[in-house]
Amino acid sequence: MIKISLCLFLVSVPFFAIICSAFSEDRPTDRRVLVLLDDFAIKSSHSIFFKSLETRGFDLDFKLADDPKLALQRYGQYLYDAIVLFAPTIDRFGGSVDAASLLEFVDSGHDLILAADTSASDLIREIAVECGVDFDEDPTAMVIDHTNHAVSETEGHHTLIANDDFVNSEVILGSRKIEAPVLFKGIGHSINPSSSLVTKVLSASPAAYSANPKSKLSSPPTLIGSAISLVSVVQARNNARILISGSLTVFSDRFFRSGVQKAGSTTKHEKCGNEQFFVELSKWVFHERGHLKAVNVRHNKVGETDEPSMYRIKDDLEYSVEVYEWSGSSWEPYVAGDMQVQFYMMSPYVLKTLSSNEKGLYYTSFKIPDVYGVFQFKVEYQRLGYTALSLSKQIPVRPFRHNEYERFIPAALPYYGASFSMMSGFFVFTLVYLYTK
Amino acid sequence: MATQETSQSATFRHAFGNVLSFAVLLLIGVMAFSIRLFSVIKYESVIHEFDPYFNYRVTQVRLVFVYGIFANSFLRDQFVYPLGRVIGGTVYPGLTLTAGTLWRILNSMNIPLSVETVCVFTAPVFSAFASLATYLLTKEIKGAGAGLTAAALLAMVPSYISRSVAGSYDNEAVAIFALIFTFYLYIKTLNTGSLFYATLNAIAYFYMVCSWGGYTFIINLIPMHVLLCIVTGRYSPRLYIAYAPLSLNVVSIRMLNITFRREKAASSQASSLISEVKLGIVRVVMVVLGTLLAALVPVVGFNAVMTSEHFASFLGHAANLQMSFSNSVVFIIIHVVALVYYIKGILSPQMFKVAVTLVVSVGMVVCFAVLAVLIALVASSPTKGWSGRSLSLLDPTYASKYIPIIASVSEHQPPTWPSYFMDINVLAFLVPAGIIACFFPLSDASSFAVLYIVTSVYFSGVMVRLMLVLAPAACIMSGIALSEAFDAENFLIKAGDTTKVTQNDVKHEKSEDTIKERSSRKSKKKDKENIERPSLVSQVEKRLLVLPLETSVIAVFLLVLLGAFYVVHCVWAAAEAYSAPSIVLTSRSHDGLHVFDDFREAYAWLSHNTEVDDKVASWWDYGYQTTAMANRTVIVDNNTWNNTHIATVGTAMSSPEKAAWDIFNSLDVKYVLVVFGGLVGYPSDDINKFLWMVRIGGGVFPHIKEPDYLRDGQYRIDSQATPTMLNCLMYKLSYFRFVETDGRGFDRVRNTEIGKKHFKLTHFEEVFTTHHWMVRIYKLKSPRNRIRGKTKKSKSKSGTSTSSKRSGTRKKNPWQ
Question: Where does the record place the STT3/PglB/AglB core domain (chain B) (predicted)?
């Protein structure tokens, strides 16, 4: 039964088919990760981050980005579930890989972590642009913040920023609050405001701007204030997730271990928020959190259990769907109070919030409006950080049959009266005509 | 008129004439059937055009289920995607019932024909019946000779052939038969005054109503005739008998209509279609077999109808108020007249005079009151209770001004003069003679024929489609004319041969007659008929006897020539002009015959390569075909009842790509189908229909403005075309990659090079183009997986070595 409904579900959600080619349906978490590096020194200088991935069960494959034997797929099958691109200066990839094939990789539902840096190459910038993120075009520019920089002995340009302007989303950043500010040193980017897919996870403070710290500011900087995003995430329409950071050093062991004190602030944190921030973020990117699935979409007439092939207008029906969230190891019931179902034919005729039984089952019941046609049950659930749920199920609604209309309504009495009076009149007339002569 | 002639030979001749008539009729029937088989012989046994496909599908469905389910069958998602369609309420069941019944009968006789075969041959069979009905009708009007001539003419009149070739499985196929037969029964009732025929008449009319919307013609024509008879002082009880039952039937038919409309409006009122039909039949039979007391019912029924009419009139169902109007008025008048005659019979002249003044004064008051009420009712409805189609009948310019969707259908356009010559050919010249013949002498029946031809000529002048109604009238008139002419000429020829002409001589002359032409054979029989009406013939004789023999021979020769010309034309029309199934096209060029089977190629592609649930958008002309042949759901189809829906598709076709994509996506469309004739020169393609998409779309969505697409007042697709035109979806889908065919993009329909030759599609992708490019199918691209950033690729960047290759592959601007 579950199998059958799964199949139905697959048919009804076109995008989901693409996802399924990326993950096994049961375990959406990535497993094989390709790490592309500028040079192998990064492997050791960013070991904490990599270690955290490995301890979570990921199978990391370190390669130089210009490795001539680099390949993403073999025999049409992707060899990896995700890529960590820690090669900000790379001009062209080795092997058969280029920006297009990397984006293809994403478009087939795989995940990507991309770190740029002050010396970011055109290639990296282009990939970012394709994902909806525009790095500052000035290659020498860095994000400077004279009010929220971290207290440091060596750093005089205020480019080492201590920032705690996080996105307000538990699903992206985990339920534990990040206490300490995150250290950042790198380039800033802006996101396409018309894009609903990109989210700023760490944005700069209103006092920040993006400029070359070494030269004098001749013209006003193009990127200023909280329009600058330092770290952004993208969730593509096929639910592939991308993390774009304007800095590679933020992932480094040095930053992970460093303490932080914000300028003008007296509290000194023993450990900055970087580790928690990026580890939690990587959990989200690799689908350990915020991945929903809907199964057992059912509808039936009230009082029946079988799904009919067609409804009649004014039928009472029940609709239910089960929604689960992937926790990294198992499917947990997803609990929310804002899931809605539409009974839709060109526009929603019914829009109802589904009630939940807290065990993943969402249900509601309503009366079909007095309109016939081909309707759809639609659930469009798009919440920040969660994979988009888009369920639709087509069902025709027919008008009353000829014998389903109400009979003997008062308005029809004149008709009946006419018929019967004529009949009796005819009878009387016949008698009179035949027998009175 | 009884004759004194009771000799042996006369009886023999009479019998011989009957047998001959029967044989000729049989031959006419065979001819009517076989002349319509050209399409099957030249092409194959397929259903033609668009609407027949729907009828065919309904027939199939109907045969699967019993009638009750048919009436309710809501053909799921197959029809008109989101809105659905109630078949029982939106289809005239006559045709499908007929074909279905035929199929069942054949099957029960162990003749295993497929449903499609039965459907293909329904129209030819019924045209044979129609010939028979024409014979009967004309016989009632002017005698058997005229009848046979008219039947022969009708059997091959091109106008009728165009709608009834084998495969043309449309309502008209059976409706023309029903129309003529109803008229015959009406005339028969009028001539005999028999209630039996009146009953049959009512039933025939009921069948007509079940078959075709043209029944409004009958129900307007007959009251007009009744009125004419009353006005000219020809009132008789026979007239009453002929009219009253029919009129009562009208009432019940109207009930049926209300049920139709009620289902359309999805309003839950009153009782069912089925029971209403049953009720209707029962009531009609009861009423007809009953007495004049029945007049009680229509008054009640009439009131009810009137209010319901009014209640539903804004839904615009064809001409119902109009029917009520003419009917009610005539109905009242005929009752008043009947009453007057009756009272006149009982009362003495003085008393009658008093009664008249009394009744007239009271009657005037009542009439005014009723009139006022009616006017108030009519005036209060927005369209004055008339549907667009009926309005355009009265005002031929109405549709083109206000309702583009009606004007867009080519068969709703006024005909051109050549189309008269094409469709009724020499009949056009014979009709006036027939009308004149009808006046010598003017009987009830012949006055009806005159009225029929006059009204149908008018209506055919409004809509080319109604030529079909004109054709039988023209045949009847021409039949009368030809037969009268041959009568007269033959008589003259014989008169020339034998110096002493007596009426009795005619019979023994007949074997010497040398004219072999079929119609003249018929006219011989006409002679025999006329002997029984010597007064009529002798009148004609006296006037025509002055003509010399040679003139008569020449006249006969010319008439035969005329007939021969007609036959040649009809056969040509049947073989060449009207037999194309329009789903398979052919063209002759210097290197032989080309067959264009692109439509079926495309539909087959759709049915094999798309998902069952996929929706296909196209202009509505192709809706039924897509449904029936590709078995895919369409957005709009040939049933044009939902103007807004069609306008939505029209708007999408006239919008730029992105806007069109949004519209189609909101309708869950997966594929878009366009018909393009530019490569092979197929003129009725979507670009030529495009102005209607703009007009219909703009009629509902005002942001589509027709002037945006016009340059110097016309639609152009060449370099002079407006940017709006060159950017609209229809242009792009039609001409995408067109320049690749010949290098310069020369459109053979418009005879010009296209305006924009190189462009790319961003939101649609071409998935299939047929062999001759006549049908092109596009798929809606799914939305982009990612949204790009704002940064434009700067030229300097693409100039660098690293990204030159990439920018080549990922070029975003389609207009380069």
Answer: 613-672
- When CB atoms are compared, the residue of B279, B784, B802 closest to A122 is B802
Closest residue in chain A to residue B84, using alpha carbons only: A373
Q: Are B785 and A98 within 8 A, CB to CB?
A: no
pLDDT tens, position by position, B51-70:
788 788 777 776 655 444 44
CB A390 within 8 A of CB A380: yes
Two tokens at B383? 């369209």
Smallest Cα distance from A281 to chain B, Å = 20
Q: Which residues of B touch A429 (CB under 8 A)?
A: 291, 293
Which residue of chain B is at minimal alpha-carbon distance from A404? B272
Beta carbons of A172 and A182 less than 8 angstroms apart: no
Our CA-based measurement puts residue A405 at a distance from the nearest CA of chain B, in whole angstroms, of: 7
Give the minimum alpha-carbon distance from A80 to chain B in angstroms, rounded to a whole number: 20
Phi/psi of residue B129, each to 5°? -60, -40
pLDDT at residue B391 in the model: 63
- pLDDT, tens digit, for every residue of B546-593? 567 778 888 888 989 999 999 999 999 888 888 777 777 777 777 777
A45 to chain B, minimum CA–CA distance in Å?
Answer: 29
Give the number of beta-carbon pairs within 8 Å between A and B: 161
Of B268, B283, B291, the CB nearest to A429: B291
ipTM for the predicted complex: 0.78
A405:B786 CB<8 A:
no
Chosen for mutation from B785, B800, B802 (greatest number of chain A CBs closer than 10 Å) is B785
Strand partners, A393: A377
Record the pTM.
Answer: 0.74
Q: Which of B74, B668, B785 sits opposite A372 (nearest CB)?
A: B74
Mean pLDDT, rounded, for B327-332: 64
Distance CA A223, CA A228 (A): 6
Q: What pLDDT sits at residue B127?
A: 94
Alpha-carbon span A22 to A72, nearest angstrom: 13
Chain B: nearest CA to A269, how far in angstroms? 36
How far is Cα A414 from Cα A422, in angstroms, rounded to an integer? 12
Torsional sign, CA B553, B557, B562, B567:
positive
Closest CA to B91 of B120, B71, B121, B61: B71
CA distance A392 to chain B (A): 11
String of b and e for A22-53 (b: at least 16 CB within 10 Å)? Answer: bbeeeebbbeebbbbbbeeebeebbebbbebb
Q: What is the pLDDT of residues B668-703, one digit of tens each?
A: 899 999 999 888 888 888 998 888 889 888 888 889
A376's tokens: 């759809």
| Residue B511 confidence (pLDDT) above 60 | no
**Angle CA(B227)–CA(B233)–CA(B235) in degrees, nearest 5?**
65
* B207-230 per-position pLDDT tens digit: 887 788 777 788 778 878 888 887
Cβ–Cβ below 8 Å for A373 and B790: no
| B-chain residues near A414 (CB < 8 A) | 300, 304
Helices (H) and strands (E) in chain B, counts: 38, 11
Chain B environment of A432 (Cβ under 8 Å): none
Give A293's strand partners: A324
Where do the DSSP E strands lie in B247-391? none
- DSSP 3-state assignment of A319? strand
DSSP A359-412: SSEEEEEEEPPS--EEEEEEEEE--TTSPPEEEEEEEEEE---TTTSPPS-GGG
Q: Say which residues have a Cβ less than 8 Å from residue B715's Cβ, sequence separation at least 6.
A: B690, B691, B709, B725
Of B68, B82, B263, Cβ closest to residue A399: B263
Per-residue pLDDT of B145-159, as tens digits, reads 899 999 999 999 999
